[in-house]
Amino acid sequence: MNKAVSIYFAGLVACTLTSAHAATPSALVDTATMQASTQEDSTQEDGQLSQQQLQALLVTMKQFRADFKQSVMDADNNVVHEAQGKLTMTRPDKLRWETTFPDETLLVADGEAVWNLDTFVEQVTVLSQANAIKDNPIMLLTANDAATWDKFTIEQVRNPDEPSRRGFQVTPKEKGGQIETLTLQFNQDNELAVMTMLDAQQQTSTLVFNNIETRFPLAADTFTIDIPESYIVDDQR
Questions:
Q1: Per-residue pLDDT of the chain (237 residues; tens, 9 = 90+)
Q2: What does the CA dihedral 153, 139, 93, 234 come to, rounded to 10 degrees?
Q3: Which of 206, 167, 217, 178 is nearest to 57 (CA)?
Q4: Are residues 218 and 131 in the same domain?
């Protein structure tokens, strides 16, 4: 529930308590039941509206390509990792993640499998895409099906430092996953500008996107990996 709705219901509860002396015990029970029901209904409506608005933004993002800068902070707000690279996505279900600093790595999701190429150890790890992103909110960036969206709750959030941006916080309904929350911020052109993830270790990873493109020619090999003969392939599908 967003802040405005929370304040609204806090006011309703306060009004109920201050007028309690005028009600019979049975009336108090009925009032409390009505309050709870109203609050639950409004929360659901608020979440549904947020989901519809986020879907409307993402459905127009059939393609996305941008440079990124990533910063990872621990629970004490210490920077533990920084990286730079390029992200390319197309809907549905395809993604290419390249880091150029501090190390060169490549991750490709082709719709069936996730391929992670690590030049440092000269190894490629292959995972089932369905298992790799199960219950991970980042899957909403490229997913179209209702069953996937039903796994998450969505609420609007505001960044006081960037009031012109529209923000959405995505939380898995099933707890225990690697990502606890995903926050997406869109700029005035409705482009994805910032992505923030809070993981199970309470580390916060923030990606800031620049040189954003949403329409561009796509090379045929964008979502494939050329594996050098000397590399070890660890296929875990």
A1: 332 222 222 222 222 222 333 333 444 445 454 444 444 554 555 668 899 999 889 888 889 999 999 999 999 999 999 999 999 999 888 999 999 999 888 999 999 999 999 998 999 999 998 887 776 787 788 777 788 888 899 999 988 888 889 999 999 998 888 889 999 999 999 999 999 999 999 999 999 999 999 999 999 999 999 999 999 999 999
A2: -150
A3: 167
A4: yes
Whether 167 and 104 map to the same domain: the answer is: yes
Nearest alpha carbon to residue 199 among 39, 27, 74: 74
Whether residues 108 and 176 fall in one domain: yes
Q: Strand ranges (DSSP E) for the chain? A: 63-73, 79-90, 94-101, 105-109, 113-118, 123-128, 152-157, 166-172, 179-186, 192-199, 204-213, 232-235
Range of the domain at 12: 3-57
φ/ψ region of 152 (left if φ > 0, alpha if ψ in -120 to 50, else beta) reads beta
Of 41, 57, 73, which closes a domain?
57
DSSP string, 141-207: GT---HHHHTTEEEEEE--TT-TTSEEEEEEESS--SSEEEEEEEE-TTS-EEEEEEEETTS-EEEE
